[in-house]
Design goal:
Mean pLDDT: 93
Strand order of the largest sheet: 2-1-3-4-5
Structural class: alpha/beta
CATH superfamily: Response regulator
CATH architecture: 3-Layer(aba) Sandwich
Order of helices and strands: EHEHEHEHEH
Oligomer: single chain
Length: 127
Amino acid sequence: MVNVTPSILITDDDRGFRETVRDLLEPQGFRTLLAADGEEALEIVRFEPVHLLVLDMHMPKLTGLETIREIKRMRALLPCILVSAAFDEELERLAQEQAFSVLHKPVSGHKITQTVRLALRWTYNWR
């Protein structure tokens, strides 16, 4: 078990969604970082310790999948949870190949928390 506080980067162009997820995860002991788009997320990953990324699919500048591809070039094992209200069959297939998990909006706080904990346990053996 690792003795650091897990840092979760929440990336979504919807500020309300970012803040809602932050308000859900911080009381559970997670450190959160917020980014409004994929480019901002890439900058944060370059300079901050990030253990998990939760990101929206449809954002300006870079989509969630484009962001994951770039992040995996820097940190191949960083788990990513992709969230979107609009998936077609092909997009969902591509997302499942690259992300730890794919969640459909609207998503419950319980489902986000459960998926975050599973990703951290699977990747880092966090309890």
